[in-house]
Write a structure and sequence with these properties.
Structural class of chain B: alpha/beta
CATH superfamily of the largest domain in chain A: Thiamin diphosphate (ThDP)-binding fold, Pyr/PP domains
Strand order of the largest sheet of chain B: 1-2-3-7-6
Order of helices and strands of chain B: HHEHHHEHEEEHEHEHHH
Number of strands of chain A: 14
CATH class of the largest domain in chain A: Alpha Beta
Oligomer: heterodimer
Strand order of the largest sheet of chain A: 3-2-4-5-7-6-12
CATH class of chain B: Alpha Beta
CATH architecture of the largest domain in chain A: 3-Layer(aba) Sandwich
Radius of gyration of chain B: 20 Å
Distance between the termini of chain A: 45 Å
CATH topology of the largest domain in chain A: Rossmann fold
Radius of gyration of chain A: 20 Å
Number of helices of chain B: 11
CATH superfamily of chain B: Thiamin diphosphate (ThDP)-binding fold, Pyr/PP domains
Number of domains of chain A: 2
Distance between the termini of chain B: 41 Å
Chain lengths: 328, 334
């Protein structure tokens, strides 16, 4: 029998539905999460199964309902907060950074905040500067938070289930351009641990460490490079914190060349951190400086030809890799 | 509890009332003397960091917490010692926390502004003004959803009226009929600025705009505070929804212990007026005497007991060890 395939959105929904069936304390807060199922229709059908008491439509008050989720998490619930666009995370920063991330530590371990914040990232949807950012680096910077970036439907389901069962606040980023991506997803219950990278493709000549939808970009570039005789290893850390440093460093030692690919801004960003980890861990095995590729340092523009050059593509990654392997 | 003279016809009900108001007296005195010790520790440079004293506002915390069960929730503020004590925290572990000791409520990692204690439903003091309004509302959500009939009280100062998230959560609480009571302690000053310079309209108008049950009370009268709090708690517990209480009070000290020269924002006469004529402990003491619930000597002996309890709590905290350095990386994640 062929493996069952789901879209990324369906995999997220299945993870939520399974966890809500398993644990009556799991509930969802967000704007248009109930009957509307979110603008991306990721949550369609959940309110019909679990009711409006557990799939809770909120006013457009991101700070308010995120704060409510923090308090509910401390007192017995396991809320999953839906922040429609990652750009709106800015409105939740006090609740996430000063409250959720700090409560366990500040209370000497007495209170816990088992909550998940699901949100989106990613450009090229023609949505302009306030609906296109990838702000996962902000949360990766803060002790007390965990940050997850699934790149496939399989990973989305397994990682989201783990995030919901985690005792800490977890921020879960879904690239909105990947919701229709299809891939095999087992029907059974499975989880994927946080902090374990996945080798998406094995190779010998160069390593591409990529996150979220950039994994697909990296894999596409790898196919192009294969035709040139360049063998690419693609590593997906899957979580920026906890970060599986070992897998990335070992791959870097093996291939001696690394590109770090992430849709956030490179400056003080995820690519900067990962490049530093690799440079520190594999310096004497590297044949080239670690190359960082991320969003251009501009607000994401609306006009299609402008927007398209702001993020790495298969072609730009292909060119960078060829050049690093001296095939230009 | 110290015995005292009561009227000869006192029945069991009167006796319970008397016990209650003597307990309230003791609690208020405890907070006052706790804060005196804090000031002393700070002045003697025995305390790291700063402290924001609650002296003058005791009737609010005590009047409200007296209306709560132990398993009800509170959230507190940077000026939180009074709330924590009134909800049942013990002074020795509080002092230990203020001194950064391992025996403290947060193993020394929270300090004065972050006392938290699950055993007494204390979700934590919070050093972000208005930072806990969401947490209290979320605790009320969980209480309702889990059917525990617990109530959450969210203490904040009138300075938090400037924070938008308060209005977001009051809206949510009213929409969802959550058992949460927002208690605005109006001590007149947002740090060093009179609240009338920062607050347009009325305080209660902010709550009534969302349809919350709203009331104001003389925050120096512990019985008045307790009476109205009891009504609002009963209502919330019965599923009738959230409420907002404005308690008018006064902060005897500066914004923090180091805020000594205050003439540029308030006069000494004003401070003296509140201390002389509006002191919540004196007012309650006089009432106890007038009711015949206690005589002056027995009230003084309660105060003496509390004073010696505070002194030994401070001694405990000073003698307690600091956490070992390994503690620094514990509890970042659960």
């Amino acid at each position: 029998m062929p493996e069952r395939e789901l879209t990324f959105a369906q995999a997220v929904r299945e993870a939520l539905a399974e966890e809500m069936r398993r644990d009556s304390h799991v509930c969802i807060f967000g704007e248009d999460v109930a009957e509307a199922g979110t603008p991306f229709k990721v949550l369609s059908g959940l309110v019909e199964e679990f009711g409006a008491e557990r799939v809770v439509d909120t006013p457009i008050s991101e700070a308010g309902f995120t704060g409510v989720a923090v308090g509910a998490a401390m007192t017995g619930m396991r809320p999953v907060v839906d922040i429609m666009f990652g750009d709106f995370l800015t409105l939740t920063m006090d609740q996430m950074v000063n409250q959720a991330a700090k409560v366990h530590y500040m209370s000497g371990g007495h209170w816990r905040v088992p909550m998940v914040m699901r949100t989106t990232l990613g450009a090229t949807r023609r949505s302009a500067a306030q609906h296109s950012q990838s702000l996962h680096a902000w949360f990766s910077h803060v002790p007390g938070l965990k940050v997850v970036l699934p790149s496939t439907p399989y990973d989305a389901k397994g990682l989201l289930k783990t995030a919901i069962r985690d005792e800490n606040p977890v921020v879960f980023f879904e690239d909105k351009m990947m919701y229709k991506l299809k891939g095999p997803v087992p029907e059974e219950d499975y989880t994927i641990p946080l902090g374990v990278a996945d080798v998406k493709r094995e190779g010998d000549d160069i390593t591409i460490v990529a996150t979220s939808s950039m994994v697909q970009v990296g894999l596409g570039a790898a196919t192009l490079l294969e035709k040139e005789g360049i063998s690419v290893e693609v590593i997906d850390p899957r979580t920026t914190w906890p970060l599986d440093q070992k897998t990335m460093i070992e791959s870097a030692k093996k291939t001696s060349r690394v590109i770090v690919l992430d849709e956030g801004y490179g400056r003080y960003g995820v690519t900067a951190e990962i490049a530093a980890v690799i440079a520190e861990g594999a310096f004497y095995d590297l044949d080239a400086p670690v190359k960082r590729m991320g969003a251009m340092h501009v607000p994401i523009p609306f006009s299609p030809p402008l927007e398209d050059v702001t993020v790495p593509t298969e072609e730009t990654v292909y060119e960078a890799a060829r050049s690093m392997c001296k095939r230009s | 509890m110290t015995t005292a003279t009561t009227r000869p016809d006192a029945g069991p009900e009167v006796s319970a009332e008397r016990e209650k108001w003597l307990r309230v007296y003791r609690q208020m005195v405890s907070i006052r003397l706790f804060e005196e010790q804090v000031n002393e520790l700070y002045t003697r440079a025995l305390m790291p960091g700063l402290a924001h004293l609650y002296s003058g506002e005791e009737a609010v915390a005590v009047g409200i917490c007296e209306a709560l069960r132990r398993d009800d929730y509170i959230t507190s503020t940077h000026r939180g010692h009074g709330h924590c004590l009134a909800k049942g925290a013990s002074p020795d572990r509080m002092f230990a926390e203020l001194l950064g000791k391992e025996a403290g409520y947060c193993r020394g990692k929270g300090g004065s502004m972050h006392i938290a204690d699950p055993a007494t439903g204390n979700l934590g003091a919070n050093a972000i003004v208005g930072g806990s309004v969401g947490i209290a509302t979320g605790a009320a959500f969980a209480a309702k959803r889990l059917g525990t009939d617990r109530v959450a009280v969210c203490f904040f100062g009138e300075g938090a009226l400037g924070q938008g998230s308060l209005y977001e959560v009051m809206n949510l609480a009213q929409l969802w009929k959550l058992p949460v009571i927002y208690v605005c302690e109006n001590n007149l000053y947002n740090e060093y600025t009179h609240y009338t310079e920062t607050t347009a309209g009325t305080i209660l108008g902010r709550a009534t705009a969302f349809g919350l049950e709203a009331a104001s009370v003389d925050g120096q009268n512990v019985r008045a505070v307790n009476e109205i709090a009891s009504r609002l708690v009963r209502r919330a517990r019965a599923g009738e929804g959230p409420a907002f209480l404005q308690a008018d009070t006064y902060r005897y000290s500066g914004h923090h212990v180091g805020d000594i020269n205050r003439e540029y924002y308030r006069s000494k006469q004003e401070e003296q007026h509140w201390k002389t004529d509006r002191d919540p402990i004196k007012l309650h003491l006089n009432w106890l005497l007038a009711q015949g619930y206690a005589d002056a000597a027995s009230l003084e002996s309660i105060a003496a007991e509390v004073r010696s309890e505070m002194e030994s709590a401070v001694k405990f905290a000073i003698a307690a060890p600091y956490p070992s350095v390994e503690e620094v990386e514990k509890h970042v994640y659960a």
